[in-house]
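Fig. S4 source data, part A: sequence.
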Amino acid sequence: MYSKSASYLCMGAATLLLSACASKTPPAEVKADPVIARMVAQKLMLDIRYFCDDVPAGKRCTSPVTELPADLASMIADTDVGGIVLFANNLVSTKQMVKLNHDIQQASLSAGHDPLFIAVDQEGGRVVRIPHHLGTSFSGNMAIGATAKNSGTQFALQSGEIIAKELLSVGFNVNFAPTVDVNVNPLNPVINVRSFGEDADQVAKLGLAQMNAMQQQGIISSLKHFPGHGDTSVDSHTGLPRVDHDRSTINNTDLKPFKYAIDNSNPGMIMTAHIQYPQLDNSEFIAKDGSKTILPATMSRKILTDLLRTEMGFKGVIVTDALNMAGIAHYFDPTAAVIQTFKAGSDIALMPMPIRSPADIPRIKQLINDVAIAVQQGEISLDELTQSVERLKTLKQQYALNKRVIDNVEEATQIASKVLGAPQHKKIEQKLANHAVVDIANNGVYPIKDSVKKLHLLMPDQTKCMAMTFALKNRHSAFNISCTSLAGKNTDLTKAQQQIKQADLVISADITPQQSMAEMGGMDDIAQWRDRLDKTQQINTLLALMKFAKQQNKASIFISLRTPYNVPQFAPYSDAVLATFAHNTAKHEYVDDYGRLITEFSGPMFNAVADILTGRLEAKGSLPVSIEQ
């Protein structure tokens, strides 16, 4: 039998002994009480991003789940798991999204279980899952922050309402948004423009407005990432960040947006961060590799129960960030991670282990069994487990999930087709972009003068070349535009220099930082992340070409397409500087009158920039973060 002494022991006043626990799981033949096992399963939210019938040794499954396989439907029915989270790979078309979510719910309901939480990360801007050409993506939180001086909470409210309506139309009931981290670190690789800005009061007001708008429509909102991910230089998808703020700074900056929402509304969920906060909990533990480190917030009872539940008074559901992220997975095996976060006070363990083939299904069942045995042996409080499951049930009832289940796929698809990307939604999306662009500097270069005929663009990739060209040509068809894409490792500098020489105006753009793991979708893309183009090389190439343009006395405009912290690097070689905070594009294909397949890319921010450069609009935004001048 699995002895209590083999579970997680306290060592001294502050060290948790976890290193031996990975190998001390119960024998497979030891079965937990089925009632407790079902309660444990209710507290799990699994991802079904990829699934293959068979995965050869040493290979990864990369086949997206766009239709629910029978094996996964049976897993949902057999385990009574509480929720599913979907990613961009799972979402292809309107009918497909509707049917997938319908089938997921039916797998649970047909087995006599409660409706599932079906979640997604639809923040707007950098992190969206519904295809850009179908839904309304918006320009993200920092763009909304840039409008706050003139527009208050208008765009936070409107974006929240529209995002919620579109998610509901295809069968989602939980949105892991908004991000209310206060971005005070210019080097933050994962939050940056996902934040409303650096002012905690403004972040709090905008976050509350967007959360309320979502929840008023019937979508459960999840504020994230508690207790704050705004002052980190490490992405918790790839490492374990640490925040060394003193308690006063934590209260007045990091915690403020969460406290404001709790005091002034009723957040459905709050998502934890895999971050060390020594001033909140300096307890140490021994990880599975024998290393000793400070307990991250997701695993800290002092942070989740003592602080969030008791001190701050949060009554809703605590959901972890994905437990397969390196900030947790490097230190804990899956079962140990689930047990520790449940002991800390979380209600939902998100993505505790990958389910990529039929061979993984017995593993998740074994995890449920092992965690249930930990409850039976007193490692996890049965009373707290019961209270946690009751919170989940209450939230599902509060949002009437049983009444929001899709019954008729065809009818739901027709409705969703009218909701997703509706003209009035797209109009507000464009209006946000129009109000967000910030004029950082302009030495009389724009509006572009009539004498300017030839433009050369220096863009991060070919898609941005096409989107900027399309937007400018739509406003001034006589422009002669060429473009250099900086995506490749072997950019033809000679050709680019020749085109710069021939141009009357050079427009350059940069996206810093590059995509984070959250933007790319999760840990399954780690190989892609490590193989991506070196950012330093791209910046050096862009700077070299901008300097060349300066030497040629060419008028030059620089556009920051993401965080504006990069502006000082490029401003010395520019006559004007704009900040957009976003670069979302949608792909459009059609056959022209000559039978040719035409591919175009467009986006709200490119439209806004083109209107500003051609004098149709004024840049109205204000920087929501500080930059060096």
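Fig. S4 source data, part B ends here. The two ends are 66 Å apart (CA to CA).
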